[in-house]
Each structure stands twice: as structure tokens, then as C-alpha cells.
Write a structure and sequence with these properties.
The complex is a heterodimer. Chain A is an alpha/beta fold. Chain A contains twelve helices and 14 strands. In chain A, α10 links the parallel β13 and β14. Chain B starts with 7 loop residues before the first helix and ends in a 16-residue tail after the last helix. Classes of the chains: A alpha/beta, B alpha/beta.
Chain lengths: 323, 323
């Protein structure tokens, strides 16, 4: 049965809460109100106020408390109301959670759900893609699913993982994206990219909402004889270079796509790794399609110009194919 | 009068840990001057009563979130002199195996959360430990230490509010030692007592003579008992004085000598020593026996630390993640 990306997240949370009593959720407005996006609607009635905790408006305390509970063997799942607000908890994430295992040798099993991304006309503080802020920090796992199947399977994996995981769930996909989700307890492993479309002209490396746009670009280019292979990273950290390299070595061309600004984005790291590890296989320079280095603008007219989309990806892919 | 509930054995245990703390730190200062210490040296001389008095009020399965001036509490929780010195010497046998330095160590199995440099970060983490206790219906308490400087950070506010709203079993314990590095109290805050802030969070707050180990113990014992009964957190402020620099490289020339002189007369160990002699619990023979035991323990720890190997780096890149 087809379900939405949002429903997939909801199901994963529900099933994990049901499966393991150590799992509990904390965040702003997640209980009585059911969350800003209604993902946790109905959870309070089923699991009670001790496992679905409405907290004060205190992102740093929420994450810090999750770390403390995790150290005591619990499995906290934090909902950041918007990924943008994760900046308020940055110190706890990068200084406390991320480094603890390397320093002390104790696991910190926790998940921070971060609703991120644009396309919902919400402006500079409700649209950001902050994954690169954390990509640089050793000790965090970062996942960013693009489909309901991966959304459900990766959230289950994240909750069962012994390390701190930031789960980037794309707000645009919540209700726009529908797809089949396998029956039963399906876990998508962290650290594994997936080729979402096989092709021969070039490898498009994308994640989150840009996977759908890349697949749409691929369809647009079929009549022109340009055949895109679309690699969905799914996990951003640790990065699955093996899958990326296998694809690029086959196609000889790489186009990296992300919604976050190009400057200092994850695409830069992927391009550098390809230059270091696959230079002899490349028939053309690695190119990137990403947002400009500006805050996310509010007006739909401006946001449309800001966001990468299928047309912009197709345009770059055409240039790259003709290099 | 505080202390009347304690047996002579318990009182002498407190005495032992006060002296062990001071003796170990004096030894570290010597090693520092001999150039054997890697990095900074953080000394709690003059404020040992807060750490030891507080820890003496806890049950064995309670947890502490220490600061850099809580060696006494760490020792009472079972951190050994050997581990402490090996950590200072950056040896493989230190608690972080050379991965972190000086006072940055912990072991959750012994109830010690590893301290980190950003001040007040451990307060929300402690709240989370308390949350785990509450959710699991465990009658355990967490003692969360911080300094006057840390009380200016947002995490202090977030943690105290969070813990109070959720009635978590946390005792927040302040070393008010008058200086945060070179910054005196009057530049840190516009109120007289940090304990007064408790009112704003809806929890009891008490300021005690931080150089009176039994007064500290009594205040923390009362707060811990309250927390254990599900009545929520408290704030205990120990008024004390930092008798040395922020770290040993700092000559603290910004501290008025008269202030130090005044506080030297109120040395917590001298006072407790006098009290025990007055109570006929300590005499010259017992004091000498204890001094010999301490000297042996400290020198064995020095030998252990000095003869321990440095980390060989074979696992440098490992352990960033738990899996």
C-alpha cells in the first residue's frame, strides 16, 4: 500500500515505541498538540505522557537531557520542531554527544529528528538544510531519506543505533511524497547509498528532496539520449563512498545535487573525494547543482529561483553530457 | 548540628577524601612544575568541601555530573588516584586513554559523567539522567555541579527550568568561588546569591558555607532526600573561594591578596580537622596513620602514572562511533 513520507515516519516511531520500552520521545508540542507537523498525533493517548514528553521551549536542554537519558540506557528520540532551531542545541550535539564515545568509550544512543528543507514558502528560519553544519563533526551519524520506504527503515535503524543520529526529514516530502513501504519490520541500514535509477551517461548524486527532482530530470532527458544514473545517498555520514565510486567509475561523469547552499556543502566533499579517488575514471569535471550562498528567501517567487529543481538539474546534466 | 548523624568511621572517611583530594592535587602541581604534565592543571584547593561534602551525602548508585573542581566527588564515586594521575600524564592507562586530558574523564558505570570544557553543558545532561531515573521509577538522584561563571550560561537556565517543570531528581550544586577565570562575581551577575535564582525556577535554593563540609553535606542530603521522594530538584550554593589561578599557568594576580588571606583562615580541611579533634574523633596518632596511608596511595599512583605507556596510536582512528 502507498503511504506518505510523513506516515512512514509516524509508523516507524509507533512501531519502535511499541517494540522497545526504552524508546521515548521529547520535544516541543509533540504530545497534546501532536507536533507541529502532526507526526506524533495520537502517540500521547497510546504511550502516555512519560514517553511522549512535551518539554519547555529549550532546545539545548532537550538535547542535553536526551544525552543524559541515553547514557543511562534509554533510547530518546528528540523532535526539533524545525531543523533551523537545532542551532540552539549545537553545542550539546557537537561537543557533548558527538565526542563522548571517542573520549570516554560510552555509547550515546539517541535520535534527533530534524524537519528540514524548503519548498514550503516558510522563509529563512523554517526552510534551512543544516546538514553540512554537522557533516564536519566526527561522531555523528546523519541520514536523509528520500522515500517513504527509506524514511521508515532508516528511522528504525537510527533508533536502534548506539550512536547519536540526526535524522533529516524533509518537510516538502511529508505530504507530497507517496510510495510503497514493505510490510513488517523493515530496517534500512545506515551507511548505505542506493542507486535509485540505473543509467550510463553520468552519475547524479543526490539526497533528500533532490532525489525526486533528479529522477524527474532523468525522465526529461530520455528523449535526448541522456541517461542519468541517480545515486541516493540516504546516509550522509558515514558517507558510502563505495557506492558513489562504483557508479562514477562506470559512467565517467558526476553531477552532485543538494538543496543546501553550494558553498561549504556536502557536495564539495564528494567532488573532492572523486578528484582524489576516481580522477582517472572521469571524462569531465565534477559539477554541482545546489542553492546559492544566501539565506533561504521567503516569497514563493524568490524561493523558486533559490531552490534547485528538475529543470536546473537537467540543464547542468545536458552541459555535462556535452563536455 | 550537622554531622551528628554520622559515625566516627563516616566522619573519618570524609576527612580521608578531603586530604586525598588536596594531597593528589598538590602532587599534580609538583609534577606540573617538573614539566611532566601535559596541558592545564585545575585545582580545587580551598573548595574541596563542596565536592566531598556533596558526594558524601549521596547513595552508591547515585550519579554525579562534576566540574573541573570536583576531584573529591570523583574519588568518592570510585575514580582512583592512579586513573586520575595517568589521565594528567596523558597516558594510555588514563580514563580516556590519552584521548582527552586532565579533568575530562568519567565512567558512567561508577556514576560519573565525563566533564567537558563548555561550562554548564553537563547540567541539561544531568537533567536527562534524572529523567531516566524518573521514567524507570528508580529512587536515584543526580548531583550536578557548576560554578558561578557557568550560571551565566543559557544551559544553566534551561536545565534548572527543565528539571523543575518535570520534577526531576537533580541536586544542582554551585561552587561559588568568586572568580570565573579572571572575572569576579560583580561582573558575572547582578544578584548576591546564585541560590536566589532558585525562586525563579520554582525550586528551593539555599546558600551555605562552602568551606564547612558538614554544612554542605547536610544541605545536599536534604535536597537529595527531597529529590528521591519525587519532590523535584533543588539548588545548593556553596560560598567558597578559588585559592589558586583558574589553572596553574594563571598567577591570579587579579585577586586581591587580602581576600585570599581572609579565606585562608577558613580553610575547609583545617576546620574539619579541628572539629574532629574537638569531637575526639581524630588525634595525632590517627592523623599520622591517615597521612601515611594517603602518602602511600599518592606515591603509588605517581609511580603507576609515570611508568604507564603513552598511547601508541594504533587505534587513533577507531571508536568515533560505538558501531
Amino acid at each position: 500500500m502507498e503511504i506518505t513520507y510523513l506516515e512512514a515516519i509516524r509508523q516507524a516511531l509507533w512501531e519502535e515505541m511499541d517494540r522497545d520500552e526504552r524508546v521515548f520521545m521529547l520535544g516541543e508540542d509533540i504530545g497534546v498538540y501532536g507536533g507541529a507537523f502532526k507526526i506524533t498525533k495520537g502517540f500521547l493517548d497510546k504511550f502516555g505522557p512519560e514517553r511522549v514528553i512535551d518539554t519547555p521551549l529549550s532546545e539545548s536542554a532537550i538535547v542535553g537531557a536526551a544525552i543524559g537519558a541515553a547514557l543511562m540506557g534509554m533510547r530518546p528520540v528528540v523532535e526539533m520542531q524545525f531543523a533551523d532551531f537545532i542551532a540552539c542545541a549545537f553545542d550539546q550535539i557537537v561537543n557533548m554527544a558527538a565526542k563522548h564515545h571517542y573520549r570516554i568509550g560510552e555509547p550515546v544512543p539517541m535520535v534527533i529528528r530534524a524537519p528540514y528543507g524548503g519548498g514550503i514558502h516558510a522563509g529563512p528560519y523554517h526552510s534551512q538544510c543544516p546538514e553540512a553544519w554537522f557533516f564536519h563533526v566526527a561522531g555523528l551519524k546523519l541520514v536523509a531519506p528520500s522515500t517513504p520506504r527509506d524514511a521508515k527503515g532508516l528511522l528504525k535503524a537510527a533508533i536502534r543505533d548506539p550512536d547519536p543520529v540526526i535524522y533529516f526529514e524533509h518537510k516538502y516530502l511529508y505530504r507530497h511524497m507517496k510510495g510503497e513501504v514493505p510490510e513488517g519490520d523493515n530496517v534500512v541500514p545506515i551507511g548505505k547509498a542506493e542507486v535509485k535509477r540505473k543509467g550510463s551517461t553520468m552519475s547524479v548524486i543526490a539526497y533528500g528532496a533532490m532525489v525526486e527532482q533528479s529522477l524527474a530530470a532523468a525522465e526529461k532527458l530520455v528523449p535526448e539520449g541522456i541517461d542519468l544514473e541517480v545515486v541516493d545517498l540516504r546516509t550522509l555520514q558515514p558517507l558510502d563512498m563505495e557506492t558513489i565510486l562504483t557508479s562514477v567509475k562506470k559512467t565517467g561523469r558526476a553531477l552532485v545535487v543538494h538543496e543546501a547552499p553550494k558553498t561549504g556543502g556536502i557536495g564539495g566533499e564528494i567532488a573532492a573525494r572523486l578528484a582524489e579517488e576516481a580522477f582517472r575514471f572521469l571524462d569531465a569535471p565534477v559539477v554541482r547543482v545546489a542553492a546559492p550562498h544566501i539565506p533561504v528567501p521567503f516569497s514563493p517567487a524568490l524561493e523558486e529561483m533559490y531552490l534547485p529543481n528538475a529543470d536546473k538539474i537537467a540543464l547542468k546534466a545536458r552541459e555535462l553530457a556535452n563536455f | 548540628m550537622p554531622g551528628l548523624d554520622l559515625t566516627p568511621v563516616e566522619l573519618l572517611k570524609i576527612y580521608y577524601y578531603l586530604k586525598l583530594t588536596r594531597g593528589l592535587e598538590q602532587r599534580v602541581i609538583t609534577l606540573y612544575r617538573q614539566g611532566k604534565i601535559i596541558g592545564g592543571v585545575y585545582i580545587s584547593a580551598g573548595e574541596e568541601a563542596i565536592a566531598v561534602g556533596s558526594a558524601s551525602a549521596l547513595e552508591p548508585d547515585d550519579v554525579i555530573a562534576p566540574t573541573h573542581r570536583d576531584l573529591g566527588a570523583n574519588l568518592m564515586k570510585g575514580i582512583t588516584a592512579k586513573e586520575y594521575l595517568a589521565q594528567y600524564l596523558a597516558k594510555r592507562t588514563g580514563l580516556t586513554r590519552g584521548r582527552d586530558g586532565n579533568v575530562h574523564y568519567g565512567d558512567i558505570r561508577r556514576g560519573v559523567i565525563g566533564f567537558i570544557s563548555p561550562m554548564a553543558d553537563l547540567l541539561p545532561v544531568a537533567a536527562g539522567v534524572g529523567l531516566a531515573f524518573k521514567l524507570r521509577r528508580e529512587r536515584r538522584v543526580v548531583a550536578a555541579f557548576f560554578g558561578d561563571g557557568a550560571s551565566s550560561r543559557g544551559d544553566f537556565h534551561e536545565a534548572l527550568n527543565f528539571a523543575s517543570v518535570m520534577k526531576l531528581p537533580v541536586v544542582f550544586i554551585c561552587h561559588n568561588n568568586q572568580f570565573a577565570y579572571s572575572t569576579p562575581l560583580q561582573k558575572q551577575m547582578a544578584v548576591e546569591n546564585i541560590a536566589d535564582r532558585a525562586t525563579a525556577y520554582g525550586m528551593p535554593g539555599i546558600a551555605v558555607d562552602g568551606n564547612d563540609v558538614l554544612a554542605v553535606r547536610a544541605a545536599v542530603a536534604h535536597a537529595a532526600s527531597r529529590a528521591r521522594q519525587g519532590e523535584g530538584p533543588s539548588l545548593v550554593e556553596g560560598k567558597t573561594m578559588r585559592m589558586r589561578g583558574h589553572a596553574e599557568h594563571d598567577d591570579a594576580s587579579y585577586v586581591p591578596p587580602a581576600l585570599l588571606e581572609e579565606w585562608r583562615k577558613r580553610d575547609p580541611i583545617d576546620r574539619f580537622d579541628a572539629y574532629l579533634r574537638e569531637q575526639k574523633i581524630l588525634d595525632d596518632i590517627t592523623a599520622k596513620e591517615i597521612a601515611e596511608r594517603l602518602s602511600k596511595e599518592i606515591e603509588e599512583a605517581v609511580s603507576f602514572a609515570e611508568s604507564s605507556p603513552f598511547p601508541d596510536g594504533t587505534d587513533l582512528l577507531e571508536g568515533v562511533y560505538a558501531s
